[in-house]
Amino acid sequence: MQCVPSGTQKPLHESNSTGLNRERKTFPRIGAFYSRGGQTLTQSADNIPGKRPADDSPALETLTPEQLCGRDESALVSCPWGSGLIHRDLYHPLMRLAEAAEGAGFTLKLASGYRGFDRQCAIWNAKAGGARPVLDEQGAPLDTAALDELALVHAILRWSALPGSSRHHWGTDIDVYDAGGLAEGETVQLTRRESEPGGPFEAFHDWLDGYLTGPDNPGFYRPYDRDRGGVSPEPWHLSYAPLANRYARAMTPEVLANYLQTESFALKETVMAHLPELFQRYVTVPPGPEPSL
Length: 293
Ligand SMILES: [Zn+2]
Hints:
The structure is a single chain. The chain is an alpha+beta fold. It has helices at 65-68, 91-103, 117-128, 149-157, 192-195, 202-212, 241-250, 253-260, 268-273, 275-283; strands at 76-78, 85-87, 108-112, 173-178, 220-221, 237-240. It has a single domain (30-283), classed as Muramoyl-pentapeptide Carboxypeptidase, domain 2 (2-Layer Sandwich). β1 (76-78) and β2 form a beta hairpin.
């Protein structure tokens, strides 16, 4: 398969017959389904995202390379606000998060949910080819002409995932912000400045800090909470651990290497020659804590 330019759509997985292009369903608010404790379902499981009939539901442990690498959209639904796609099992936890945020006076929105291989590849290729800036540690554009290929790969990976390895490929991870924090005409940028003191999302992130460590959190955590020498810290990036941990366990350097051999993308030769150490540094993150049911 080949990565296509941004804006060009093609079927993500032509051989998949499990409903790639079927109409996205919308679902009622979580309060209709869950008890106060957040786990007791009170409706027919067939009507609830996250509960699939057993006969068409492959075990998560058998996740395919296409599911892991952003080539399979069959598990996705529209997010609760109708813009962006997420894994169906994230729908209710996301509703709980959004409702908690709303109760605290914030308007939680997604800057990103699911992102497929082609989209990630377009970002990657644009940075590798100079059509998009590659940033230094301070967020200023780098002179990429002065870098050798491996240095360029590392520079891109600080801010953007290698196509095939993004956690956004799973539908389990989201980039969030508080739309109420934006001034008229202002748009979200997803920079650390926005969440720091004086930034438009400072209060939202202060609240989120408490929510993530509190008893009502259904399992969200920040995989890029601090700088471990790989991906630059991203306080806005949340992962739903009960689901994402399973994808992360299934995604190994071998799975990624075998899959990437089938794709075309910029700097491929250099990436493939260094994939084990790139994977360890930029793909591996600590698993999130999973709440007990
Ligand atoms: Zn993200």
